[in-house]
Amino acid sequence: MKSLVLEHLAKTYFDPYRGTQVEAIKDLSLTVEEGDFVAVVGPSGCGKTTVLNMIAGFVPKTGGRILVDDREVSGPGPDRGVVFQSFALFPWKTVRENVAFGPKMRGVGKVERARIADEYLEMAGLSHAADRYPNELSGGMQQRVGVVRALANNPDVLLMDEPFASVDAQTRMTLQEELTRIWEERRPTVVFITHDVGEAVFLANKVVVLARGNLLAEVDISLPRPRVWDSLVHDNDFKDLSNQVLQLVRSA
Amino acid sequence: MRPLQTLWGYYIRMTIKWPGLAALIPFIPLIALWSFVVWLELFPRVFLPGPGDVLIKAWELLYKGILLDYLGDSVVRLSVGAAAGMALAIPLGIFIGLNSRAHEVSWPILLFFQAIGDIAWLPILLIWFGFGLTTMTFVIVYTVLFPVVLNTVLGIRSVNPELRRAAQSLGASRPRILFEVTLPGALPNIITGLRNGLGYGWRALIAAEIIVGTSGIGFLMFDARRAGSVEEIVVGMIVLGILWYIVDSWILAPIERATGQRWGLVSS
């Protein structure tokens, strides 16, 4: 896993209904160190998904540079793994085939990529579901597949776009705890987009607050790990940090 | 109510055991109604034969070998025409579906020619190619082509764009995305196109055989009209229905169950 640097990133697009240029992202600079976990929060419309889509290469940037491991990138690539809010699993592939997809595209042989997939599925506690199709799984299980599918391809940076927004509250807490466990084990470089302040503080080492296309603040989260909800719910540091970030988001 | 419910439960268990029965049983009241109308003698027997008369006629035609010969001719014509139609239509649909410029240019043309029904081509085709296989094949290919092209285009264009993004982020090249994502995603629509295409093609073939034919089920029916044999016409109609049911339930439906329904793309 390698570092991610955004230099004066900008995005303007033409709004055909208003007939004007809209500045979605004005001038955003951010460094995510190798092995760091950064969460990006902000009110809806602040451009956080646009930032992720630019890093992923799904939408072209209109200014600035994006560097992954000191290489400038444009367009999507396997160095930046993406976990989608809608899971985006391939419905016609089994869970194992979904996880093995990245290695398959890299030309890894059949036996080896099945082994890689099974290793990651075990990590996510999904070994029993390897031969099932995504539509046979619950939302929480589908997103576990989404996470390990991205990880199994060994990306330099893992980009997560509100990945737990569409699962129920209990499952979400479980998934958050599993993600911190996996992050502590493997130390991937993560950029995590969310509108949920509690989620951002719980998961990240650093929370970045965006407002109207600008970086409003960076808040370091020095809570001890491993983090579990049962203890953090009553933790005063967690509450203070959450309140601090919440105030920033609401002031935006 | 009790005996009715018992009977209904019995029916449900039977049809689970023998699914083929579930397809036959709805016809029982239909045939009963038919027999009843014949029994009332509202129409002369020559105009409206009963199920028994038709069955005897069907046996006679089978015994003479005419029915199977004609059926074979029709099925071969449909298969050849449909295969050629698909071989043209699916690649064309993929190309138009992937290329928005091609889509823009070709869509009005496709809609225009789709509107000129298969049979509307027959007069001009008869002048160009005469009464023969070329005319019939042209009509079937033409009829199969449009539903398959239009549905393939629709399928390709309606694949969830997030899936393409996911594949790109996992390192898939453009050709890999086509084969791993776009085509499987479009498959349910392509199958719908095939189903419609074959259905329309089958009807077009019967029409063509009536006008052009020297053999085939359509010819059998039209020839029977000349001989004044209503039984034979009805035999032809029933064969058409049965054959389509077989194509649909033995070929198309299993493909759908194994693909779109299994993947949760279409509800079962």
Automatic annotation (TrEMBL), chain A:
GO terms, molecular function: ATP binding; lyase activity
Domain of life: Bacteria
Entry keywords, A to Z: ATP-binding, Lyase, Nucleotide-binding, Transport
All residue ranges annotated as the ABC transporter domain in the record: 4-237
Family named by the database record: Belongs to the ABC transporter superfamily.
Record-given protein name: ABC transporter ATP-binding protein
Organism: Aquibaculum arenosum
Automatic annotation (TrEMBL), chain B:
SUPFAM superfamilies in alphabetical order: MetI-like
Entry keywords, A to Z: Cell membrane, Membrane, Transmembrane, Transmembrane helix, Transport
Transmembrane domains' residue ranges: 21-40, 78-98, 110-131, 137-156, 200-222, 234-253
CDD domains in alphabetical order: TM_PBP2
Subcellular location: Cell membrane
All copies of domain ABC transmembrane type-1, residue ranges: 71-252
Membrane-protein topology: Multi-pass membrane protein
Family: Belongs to the binding-protein-dependent transport system permease family.
Protein name in UniProt: ABC transporter permease
Lineage: Bacteria, Pseudomonadati, Pseudomonadota, Alphaproteobacteria, Rhodospirillales
